[in-house]
From TrEMBL, chains A, B:
This is LLM class flavin-dependent oxidoreductase. GO terms for molecular function: oxidoreductase activity. Belongs to the NtaA/SnaA/DszA monooxygenase family. Pfam families: Bac_luciferase. Its EC number is 1.-.-.-. It comes from the Bacteria.
Length: 445, 445
C-alpha cells in the first residue's frame, strides 16, 4: 500500500439497529426519527468530532409490525438537505433504492445534494429487501434477489452517465458574447438497456465532487460483485474481527480483479458502542437496555428474515433447527445465512433467536470504557479487518454519539490514529477518494 | 364573502420568466439557478418583506435549445429543504410532475418537507408539457394533454389518501406501557385505480398542516377542472385585468359547483415588476433589458409552443397567421390559444411573435414607480381579478425582489392592504386555508 491508510469514522443517525425496544429507555429521544432537530443537532455533534460523515437509512414499506424507529421517519434527501445547510464539512450519506426509483430523478436528487452541500454527498445504493414494497408502487411482485442487483447495475450505469452530461467548465455565462454554455461540453447519454432507456442530458452542471460517492450495503455474492464494480464504500455488519477480515479481503480482491485500486473501495462495518467509566458499568448499561426487550417486538423484528406465517406456527420454546428449511426469506441473503449457522451452532429456540437478534448481548466488542472501545477500533483497523466504522448514534439515541465524540474520538486523535481537523472541503477529498474523470473529457497531457 | 379577503404575495425564485437573455444584464446573478446561496438569500429577503411564500418551478427535460436559466438547476425539494432550515415563517412551494413520478415518493417528499419546515410546505402539481420528457423516463411517448390530467386526478387521490394514513395523535410513544402507536389510528389505503395501485400506509405521521397545500398551474379546461377539484392555490398568467377577472370567476365558480367554498381556492397570477423613481426611468430599464434580446434565443423559447421543425421552414419576416394550423403544440393549451389570437389580432410575423413573447414589452402594467406598482396590485385585488400575485425575483435577478420588498411592500402595508407580520406558524394559517380533516377521524361533536 503506497499511501498511509486513514481510519474512517461515520455516524449512523438511522436509529435503532436491531434493538426494537430501546426507545423505552428514559434517556432515549423517542420521536427522533421524525424530528429534524435531532438530525441537525446530531450532525453538528458529529462534525464537532470531525467524523467523516453521517449516514441516514431508509425503507419504502411499513406495516403495523414494523419496528417503532422505522415506522415514522423523514425522507432522507430532504432531511440531508437541511443538514447540509446546518453544517459545513461533514459528509452526507443517504439511502435510496434502485428497485423503486427512476434513474433520472435519483441523479438529480443526489446531484442537487452535492451542489447544495458543496461536495459532501454520497448515495447508499440499496436494492430493497422487503417484498411488500412492491405493493406501494403498483408492481405485481418484488423482483427476485439477484435480478434486483442486475437492475441496480444498469441503474448505476445510467446515473453515472447522466452525471457526466456536462464536462467541467461547460457553463461559461459570458455576458458580453452571450454564450451561456459551451455546446461541445454537453453530452446526451441516449442510454438504451435492458431495464432502462434514458435520453439525457441531466439539467445540472457537473457536481463539486465530479459525482456523489457511491456506497453499498449488500453482503451476498451478488451484492459483493455489485460493490466491487460500482461502490466506493461498502457498509456491512461483521460480528467478529475474523469474519470482518475475511469480508474485507474478499471485497478488496473482487475490486482488484476488475482492475480497480482496492484502496478506493472502503469497507466500513456498522457498530453500536456503549461507553462507561468501567467495564462493569458498561455491562450494566447493556443489561439495562436488554431488560427493555419485549419478546413480541423481537419476534416482529425477526419477520425481516423469517416467514411470518411460519413463525406463527412454531412454538416459542421448541428447537428451531428442524424447522429452518423454507423458513428463511430471500430479502437479506448474507444475514439469513448467518442466522441459519447460529441456530444450528447454538441450538437456539425461536425465543432464543429473537432475543439474540434483538440484543446481540454479550457479543459486542465495542462495549466498555472509552479506552477499551478505542483499543478495539485500533485493533480491527490495524489488522486490516476494516477501513473504519459507522458508529450508531445509539443504542440510547443520541447519547451513544455524544459519548463516542466526547470520549473515544479524543483518544484516537491522541494516538495519531484519527485526524484532528478535516483535510479537505469535499467528502472525496476527506476520504482520499479520487474525483472520477468525466468519460467525455479529453485527457490533457 | 363572510371573511375579509387577504392579499396574498409570493415570490417566484424560479428564474427568467419568458425573457431568455436577461441573464446578460450586468447586475443579473447569472449562476443563480444552480447556486443555493441565491435561493437562501432571496428567501430571507422575501421573509423580511413578510411575503407569504417562495415558489420554485421545475422541468424534467432539457436539450441544447433550452433557455439558459432552465438548463442548469437545482432539484426543488432538496433546494426547499435547505431554505426551510434557513428561514422560519415563509411558505415553501415546490414543483413536481404527476406524469413522471410515483405517488408514494411524492407523498413522502412533500410530507417530509412539511415536517421539516414545521408546516410550510406546498406542492405545485404540474402534468409536464414538454413531450421529450418521456425519453428521460423510458416511456414510448408522452401522454396526451387531457389524459395527463386524468392521471393527475388519480395521483392526487392516492397522495391525499397516503397523507391520511395516520390520524392526529397516533404516535403515543408511551415509555412505561411500551405502546409506540395507537393501532386504531393507523389506516392502510389499499388503493386500486386505473393508473395507480398503492397499498400504504405512509411511513410518516400526519404533517403539521394536516397535509401540504396543493397548488396548480394549468389554464386549459382540463386544468381548471383539476384545480377546482384538488387545488387550494391556482397559479396563472393573465395579461390584463379583464382577462384576469374572467379567469378568477371561472375558477371560483367551478369550485363552488363542486360544493367547495370558493374562498378556499386562491387565484394568483405571476407578474414581473420593474420599479424605479419615475415612470420614465422604469421604462428605460425595461428598454435596457429588452435590448439584450437575441432573436435566436427568442426563437428557441418559442419551441415550447410551436413545432421546431415547422419554425425552421418559415421565413422570419413573413406573416405567421396562414401557417398557424399544425404549428402549435399541445403542451401549454391555454398559452397556445392566446398565441393564436395574438398572431391574428396583431398580424405578427415569426420575428414579431418571438420578440413579443420574450419581452411582453409595453404590455406590463407592473412597470413604473413603487406607488404605481402598488396601485396596480390594489386595483386588481379590489376588482376581484386576483387574490394576490406571485412576483418574480427578476427580471434582473435578484434585484427585482429587493426593490419589491423594500419599496412596494411598505406602501401596501401603509395602506392596510398587506400584513406587517406573519399571522400564523403554518402556511395554511397564514393564508387562511383550513386544515383538511383526516378522512378516518371520528367527528367529535
Ligand atoms: C450497515 C447496513 C445498512 C443498511 N441500510 C439499509 C437501508 O437503509 N435501507 C435498506 O433498504 N437496506 C439497508 N441495508 C440492507 C442492504 O441494502 C441489503 O438489502 C441487505 O444487506 C441484503 O443484501 P444482500 O442480500 O446482498 O446481503 C443495510 C445493510 C447494512 C449492512
Ligand atoms: C405561473 C405558472 C408557473 C408554472 N410553472 C411550471 C413549472 O415549474 N413546471 C412545469 O412543468 N410547468 C409549469 N407551468 C405549466 C403548467 O403546469 C401547465 O403545464 C401549463 O400551464 C399547461 O397547462 P394547460 O394546458 O392546462 O394550460 C406553470 C404555469 C404557470 C402559469
Amino acid at each position: 500500500m503506497s499511501q498511509a491508510r486513514r481510519l474512517v469514522l461515520g455516524s449512523s443517525l438511522s436509529i435503532g439497529g436491531s434493538h426494537t425496544s430501546v426507545w423505552r429507555h428514559p434517556r432515549y429521544w423517542s420521536d427522533a426519527s421524525i424530528n429534524i432537530d435531532y438530525f441537525v443537532s446530531a450532525a453538528r455533534k458529529a462534525e464537532e468530532g470531525k467524523l467523516d460523515f453521517i449516514f441516514v437509512g431508509d425503507s419504502l414499506y411499513v406495516n403495523d409490525h414494523t419496528a417503532p424507529h422505522l415506522i415514522n421517519r423523514l425522507e432522507p434527501l430532504t432531511l440531508l438537505s437541511v443538514v447540509a445547510g446546518a453544517t459545513s464539512r461533514i459528509g452526507l450519506v443517504g439511502t435510496l433504492s434502485t428497485t423503486y426509483h427512476e434513474p433520472f430523478h435519483v441523479a438529480r436528487l443526489f446531484g442537487s445534494l452535492d451542489h447544495i452541500s458543496r461536495g459532501r454527498a454520497a448515495w447508499n445504493v440499496v436494492t430493497t429487501a422487503l417484498p411488500g414494497t412492491a405493493e406501494n408502487f403498483g408492481r405485481d411482485s418484488h423482483l427476485e434477489h439477484d435480478q434486483r442487483y442486475r437492475v441496480a447495475t444498469e441503474f448505476l450505469d445510467v446515473v453515472k452517465g447522466l452525471w457526466d452530461s456536462w464536462e467541467e467548465g461547460a457553463f461559461l455565462r459570458d455576458k458580453s458574447s452571450g454564450v451561456y454554455f459551451d455546446a461541445s461540453k454537453l453530452h446526451t447519454l441516449n442510454y438504451k438497456g435492458e431495464h432502462f432507456s434514458v435520453r439525457g442530458p441531466l439539467s445540472m452542471e457537473r457536481t463539486p465532487q465530479g459525482r456523489p460517492i457511491i456506497v453499498q450495503a449488500g453482503s451476498s455474492d451478488a451484492g459483493k460483485d455489485f460493490a466491487a464494480r460500482h461502490a466506493e464504500i461498502v457498509f456491512t455488519h461483521q460480528p467478529s474481527i475474523e469474519e470482518a477480515k475475511r469480508f474485507y479481503h474478499d471485497i478488496k480482491e473482487r475490486a482488484a480483479k476488475l482492475g480497480r485500486n482496492p484502496n478506493e473501495l472502503l469497507v466500513l462495518p456498522g457498530i453500536s458502542t456503549i461507553v462507561a467509566d468501567s467495564a462493569a458499568q458498561a455491562q450494566q448499561k447493556q443489561d439495562e437496555i436488554d431488560a427493555l426487550i419485549d419478546i413480541d417486538e423481537a419476534l416482529k423484528e425477526l419477520e425481516r428474515y423469517l416467514d411470518p406465517a411460519a413463525i406463527a406456527r412454531i412454538d416459542l420454546d421448541e428447537q428451531l433447527a428442524p424447522h429452518l428449511d423454507g423458513l428463511l426469506t430471500d430479502g437479506y441473503q448474507a444475514e439469513t445465512e448467518r442466522i441459519a449457522q447460529l441456530v444450528h451452532k447454538e441450538n437456539l429456540t425461536l425465543r432464543g433467536l429473537a432475543l439474540r437478534m434483538s440484543t446481540r448481548a454479550g457479543h459486542n466488542p465495542f462495549v466498555g470504557t472509552a479506552e477499551h472501545v478505542a483499543d478495539a477500533i485500533q485493533q480491527w483497523f490495524e489488522a486490516e479487518a476494516v477501513d473504519g466504522f459507522i458508529v450508531s448514534s445509539g443504542p440510547i439515541v443520541p447519547e451513544g454519539l455524544h459519548h463516542f465524540v466526547d470520549q473515544v474520538v479524543p483518544i484516537l486523535q491522541g494516538r495519531g490514529l484519527y485526524h484532528t481537523d478535516y483535510r479537505a472541503e469535499t467528502l472525496r477529498g476527506q476520504l482520499g477518494l479520487p474525483v472520477p474523470p468525466n468519460r467525455y473529457a479529453q485527457a490533457t497531457t
